[in-house]
Amino acid sequence: VNETKIWDNRAWFFVAPVLIFVLFSSLIPMMTVLNYSVQDSMGQNNFFWNGAGWFQNLLDPTTEVGKRFQGALLRNLTFSFVVLAIEIPLGIAVSLCIPKQGWKVGAVLVIIALPLLIPYNVVGVIWQLFTRGDIGLLGTSLRAIGLTGFNVTQDAASAWFTLIIMDVWHWTSMVALLCYAGLKAIPDAYYQAARIDGARRWAVFANIEFPKLRKVLIIAMLLRFMGSFMIYTEPFPVTGCGPGEATSFLSIDLVKMALMQVDLGNAAAYSLVYNLITLTVCWIFFTYTTHADSKENA
Amino acid sequence: MRGSRMRGSLGRPLGMALYMLFLLIPIYWLINMSFKTNTEIMSGLSLWPEHPVLDNFRKIFIDPDWHASFINSISFVALNTVVSVTIALPAAMPSAVTGSSATSPCSSGCCRI
User: Which candidate, A30, A175, A235, A242, has a CA 20 to 30 Å from the CA of B94?
Assistant: First the structure.
């Protein structure tokens, strides 16, 4: 009668393959980077201890590498900030414009999801062709209406404009679809109550829809921040980090340092600091959401 | 009240139409170019191909350099799927076997909240 629960943990052996695989695919490469970041080499595979030297170098804006890192970081943060400031409000607006019923719902969802299904490099190629001043529709149109200086490869403002509009084009739909899912989850009773109170459209948005979208929006902001902060593929065919260094973001700069200049120590410190920034931001978002959740449930 | 409802009923489809236009124009431009010859593309702006050709598509599917990259991508995806599913699927075993007991990482952590 007195049943004792049998503890059988043999099923855990099934986790072993994934653990071993992750060890080889993530942990060992990561430790290699860590290894490079604290050592220096004179070639011939002879390494010696360099302590925190590479990190001090990287975080000191007076050094060459430090200046480069600071520049790329500021550009990347600016890019992420601008992109979020456009995509989040625009995504909310678009989600509110999605039809409520009928065949149009499906059609609209498919069309707005289209950019999300395009390979990143193709997105870059599309915008490179589209914004060219001689044969691109947008480039020639902008020149025709008087912006004769529009030139993605020569003019920094044009390059920035193109990259931002490209990211908005590529990812606003994701924010819109997330918000649409959030809006769908609002029970009809809220709208009925608003109707009884005679609430105007704006009041419905500000007091019902927006608060209910908060969680979804935090996820959308996290995803878009990460996406834009780690951006590499799309800008590359468009501006190739130019003109000069005007659109050289962290990932692009890092690849240049690690693979083209083979500056391993600096690149390793660069990677780790870059990684720590994304981890920190992720952690802040995570703690904020879990904290907000527990407050809501209490 | 009536006015705002009128504006709402017109504004939303209009907003959606503008957004979809924004999304589709670059894609249209890509499709437009894919039916042009390189000389036509470089010789100036035209909103649709004046002498539409399928040469570009023919080249992609016939030229071995081009279709090799498609085949590479497909093999990569196939291998990747097989390897990751084979490795990751057994990892679901402990939580499936032990159900909601505390030995499962999920029930001791995220799911209980």
Answer: A30
Phi then psi for residue A121, to 5 deg, are -65, -35
Q: How far apart are CA A16 and CA A122, in angstroms?
A: 38
> Phi/psi at A40 (nearest 5 deg)?
-125, 160
Three-state secondary structure along chain B?
Answer: CHHHHHHHHHHHHHHHHHHHHHHHHHHHHHHHHHCCCHHHHHCCCCCCCCCCCCHHHHHHHHCHHHHHHHHHHHHHHHHHHHHHHHHHHHHHHHHHHHCCCCCCHHHHCHHHC
Which residue among B16, B90, B113 places its CB closest to the CB of A108?
Answer: B16
Q: What is the pTM of this model?
A: 0.86
Is pLDDT at B101 greater than 50 in this prediction? no
Tens-place pLDDT, residues B9-67: 788 899 999 999 999 999 999 999 999 988 888 887 888 888 899 999 998 888 888 88
Of B19, B45, B87, the CB nearest to A135: B45
Distances, alpha carbon A237 to alpha carbons A113, A153, A232, A249, B81, in Å: 23, 11, 10, 14, 28
Which of A238, A228, A274, A237 minimizes the C-alpha distance to A253?
A274
List the structure tokens of A179.
């918000």
pLDDT at A8 over 60: yes
